[in-house]
Amino acid sequence: MITQRMRDFFETRRPEGPCLVVDLDVVRANYLGFEKALPQARIFYAVKANPAPEVLRLLASLGSCFDTASVAEIEMALEAGATPNRISYGNTIKKERDIARAHALGVSLYAVDCVEEVEKIARAAPGARVFCRVLTDGEGAEWPLSRKFGCVPEMAVDVLRHARTLGLESYGVSFHVGSQQTDLNAWDRALSDAANVFKTLANEGILLKMVNMGGGFPTRYLNDVPTAQAYGMAIFDALSRHFGNRIPETIIEPGRGMVGNAGVIRTEVVLISRKADNDNVRWVYLDIGKFNGLAETMDEAIRYPIVTPHDGDAVGPCVLAGPTCDSADVMYEKTPYPLPVALNVGDELFILGTGAYTATYASVAFNGFEPLRSYII
Question: Which residue stretches, if any, does this entry annotate as coiled coil (predicted)?
Answer without folding.
Answer: none
